[in-house]
Amino acid sequence: MTHFTPRKRFVVALLAGAVATGGVQAEAFKKIAPPHLKEFEKALRLKPDIDNGRRLFRRICSTCHGPEGWGVPASGYPEIAGQLKDVIIKQLADFRAGNRDNPIMNAFVTPRVLTGPQDIADVAAYVSQLPMSPRNERGFALRIEEGKKLYQKLCADCHGDRGEGDPKRHAPRIQGQHYSYLMRQFNWIRNGYRRNANKKMQEQIQNITSSEQVAIMSYLSNLKPDHPVAPEGWHNPDITGYDRSWRPAKLR
């Protein structure tokens, strides 16, 4: 079997995505992708095959999100390990339908790569059970208490008392996420760039100041997750021979 380095797998997946979508933009991508709601609902009901999820993660996700699923701090690549399964399913379905814009993700979620609801259910289940990073990128420690008060007042109803998320609402786990990623997604939701965002949240955060935003994201990024956290030095035993010094280019 041919061995591909992470960089080569990244290029191959991009080429596969270009072939599958014909290089079209989000509007055209919507037309050829399966209806995301139907796919989302079906994937939720399916029994996951963890072995297939492991193979898909190794082949598709590990290139950008890393072999542990911890993303890359300060790069724009989020930690996906430990994310709620239903949330991962929804986000994958939304990417496939063009309801979230990311050229790299578009290449990785085409029907040529993820063949349908079963693949989505499988990889989501595998990722959700991975332990989270003990060294995520964190915000300002001096703003934690202020951020906690603001979070409890403005965010806890949907995302949980400690940012643990809510599978029934498909609200993601945001505790222990990289600080810069939290900041970027908050901005994208507020300005309407992230089209699959909850409308209620989009309206609610309009009056949050930049200073308050920094405090809230500092609090969340410094929270110890309710989900298991990997011990220092842990490597995913399902992925061997991986060059962990390689990192994808920074997203802007």
Number of strands: 0
Query: Could you describe the largest sheet, including whether it forms a barrel?
Result: none
CA radius of gyration: 18 Å
Question: SSE order in H/E notation?
Answer: HHHHHHHHHHHH
CATH superfamily of the largest domain: Cytochrome c-like domain
Any idea how many domains?
Answer: 2
Q: Overall pLDDT, averaged?
A: 88
Structural class: mainly alpha
CATH topology descriptor of the largest domain? Cytochrome Bc1 Complex, Chain D, domain 2
How much of the residues is beta strand, in percent?
under 5%
Count of discrete alpha- or pi-helical segments spanning 4 or more residues: 12
**Which architecture of the largest domain per CATH?**
Orthogonal Bundle
Distance linking N and C termini: 35 Å
Search tags:
252 residues, 0% strand, mainly alpha, 12 helices, Cytochrome Bc1 Complex, Chain D, domain 2, 2 domains, single chain
Account of the protein in words:
By secondary structure, this protein is mainly alpha-helical. The chain contains 12 helices and no strands. The protein has 2 domains: 6-128, Cytochrome c-like domain (Cytochrome Bc1 Complex, Chain D, domain 2), CATH 1.10.760.10; 141-222, Orthogonal Bundle (Cytochrome Bc1 Complex, Chain D, domain 2), CATH 1.10.760.10. Mean pLDDT is 88; it is low at 11-26 and 28-34. Helix 4 packs across helix 7 (117-128), helix 5 crosses helix 7 and helix 10 packs across helix 12. The longest helix is centred in the first third of the chain and has 16 residues, at 6-21. It starts with 5 loop residues before the first helix and ends in a 30-residue tail after the last helix.
